[in-house]
């Protein structure tokens, strides 16, 4: 028998869960079904991230990322506190490795102020009082509102809340294809819907394409690894970030205290072979690998958006020694023996516009006939999720 639902959400990551929550509030009498190809929620980006509650310093002032990061960080903070989910309100500093980065720090500070972010520009002496382990060239930015959230606990609480409100979940249920705009084929049979909401993260572009939307885009996966510190004396107290790379638009390797105070350094950003290729032999799909490698070879050749330089620089950070060597730009007196264990890797997608030959920066929402597609849910999509979901429910559903 064919399953029927009013709202069908594909993807049980933070975006799918927060949109389901908004729908529940808005349409309590409608049926909502969330499907995911994995065996449980948050198996991909939402369970494999840095866990940093961003304040919204970086993003272009008129972008969706800036708007929803600033609003979403407050909502995520409130949700964590209300539900007694651990939150480490540790703050963050952004430091400059050299004189040219000092200029970028000042530009970044202006942008943060334009975004309405609470932060200050501090000199080297002030920095040494705020975060004694950090070092900078000239100036740094101090953001007291940056924090660390517990990504898995937040998703689990949302799932519990939704199940209690009669939202149905089907796991190990993979979206396979669009049948006729009101019905999809999944690995567990066909599902008929009134509205489909595509929140498939790393595969959202593929599903949107199946609905005849977005052309000329290709997704490039970058793998991030983390190295944990056994900092028993608690030297590192705040997030320590570099000036972000303006071309690739990733925030760069940083020091981060987690929600429980554990310190990690990462994530790196090495171009990888497939969208979910977390370890050497994991999740190989031949056609996907061919597509990803094809794009990466072209970019290695053309060095568009510094791809070749980035790939080689990031490869050097794949060993403990390489990662620690890079980190000397951020902190004083780092001791390699303190950094012992690798953490769970995550993969960040970058959506590349083949026609314009540029990286797509912002979140993208595409509307089909009976469907909505959330594409490019890149960082800080976790931080932004509650505010972003509200926007989607109010304006698209
Ligand atoms: C290394 C790393 C560090 C990050 N750090 C931060 C940070 O510090 N702060 C921050 O705010 N953000 C951070 N992010 C970004 C953030 O984690 C993501 O933007 C966010 O989790 C995206 O959520 P999502 O629900 O869109 O995607 P996902 O969590 O990937 O969820 C998508 C879901 O769709 C499912 N799915 C995919 N295809 C199908 C299909 N065909 N059928 C059925 N189900 C399917 C997947 O199984 C998955 O569960 C980071 C990301 C990474 C990778």
From TrEMBL:
SUPFAM superfamilies named among the record's database cross-references: FAD/NAD(P)-binding domain (SSF51905)
InterPro entries (alphabetical): FAD-dep_OxRdtase (IPR006076), FAD/NAD-bd_sf (IPR036188)
Keyword Oxidoreductase: yes
Keywords: FAD, Flavoprotein, Oxidoreductase
GO MF annotation terms: (S)-2-hydroxyglutarate dehydrogenase activity
GO cellular component, one term: cytoplasm
Domain FAD dependent oxidoreductase: 6-305
Listed cofactors: FAD
Pfam name, any one: DAO
Coiled coil: none
Family according to the record: Belongs to the L2HGDH family.
Protein name: FAD-dependent oxidoreductase
Organism, scientific name: Aquella oligotrophica
Lineage, opening ranks: Bacteria, Pseudomonadati, Pseudomonadota, Betaproteobacteria, Neisseriales
């Amino acid at each position: 028998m064919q399953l029927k639902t009013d709202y069908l959400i594909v993807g049980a990551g933070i975006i799918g869960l927060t949109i389901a929550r908004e729908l529940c509030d808005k349409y309590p009498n409608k049926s909502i079904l969330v499907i995911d190809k994995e065996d449980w929620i948050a198996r991909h980006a939402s369970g494999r991230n840095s866990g940093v509650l961003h304040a919204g310093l970086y993003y272009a002032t008129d972008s969706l990322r800036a708007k929803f990061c600033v609003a979403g960080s407050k909502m995520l903070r409130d949700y964590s506190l209300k539900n007694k989910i651990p939150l480490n309100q540790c703050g963050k500093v952004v430091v400059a490795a050299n004189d040219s980065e000092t200029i970028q720090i000042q530009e970044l500070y202006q942008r943060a102020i334009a975004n309405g972010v609470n932060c200050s520009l501090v000199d080297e002496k002030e920095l040494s009082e705020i975060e004694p382990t950090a070092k900078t060239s000239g100036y740094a930015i101090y953001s007291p509102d940056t924090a660390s959230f517990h990504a898995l606990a937040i998703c689990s609480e949302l799932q519990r809340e939704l199940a209690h409100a009669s939202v149905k979940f089907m796991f190990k249920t993979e979206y396979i294809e669009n049948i006729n705009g009101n019905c999809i084929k999944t690995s567990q049979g066909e599902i008929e819907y009134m509205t489909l909401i595509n929140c498939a993260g790393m595969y959202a572009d593929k599903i949107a394409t199946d609905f005849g939307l977005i052309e000329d885009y290709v997704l490039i996966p970058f793998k991030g690894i983390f190295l944990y510190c056994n900092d028993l004396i608690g030297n590192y107290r705040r997030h320590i970030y570099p000036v972000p790379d303006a071309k690739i638009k990733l925030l760069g390797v940083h020091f981060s205290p987690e929600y429980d105070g554990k310190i990690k350094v990462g994530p790196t950003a090495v171009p990888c072979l497939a969208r979910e290729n977390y370890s050497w032999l994991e999740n190989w799909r031949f056609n996907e690998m061919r597509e990803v490698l094809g794009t990466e070879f072209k970019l290695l050749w053309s060095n568009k958006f510094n791809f070749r330089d980035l790939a080689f620089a990031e490869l050097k950070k794949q060993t403990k020694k390489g990662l620690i060597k890079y980190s000397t730009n951020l902190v004083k007196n780092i001791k390699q023996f303190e950094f012992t264990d690798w953490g769970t890797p995550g993969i960040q997608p970058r959506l590349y516009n083949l026609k314009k030959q540029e990286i797509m920066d912002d979140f993208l929402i595409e509307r089909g006939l009976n469907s909505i597609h959330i594409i490019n849910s890149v960082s800080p999509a976790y931080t932004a999720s509650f505010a972003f979901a509200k926007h989607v429910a109010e304006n698209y559903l």
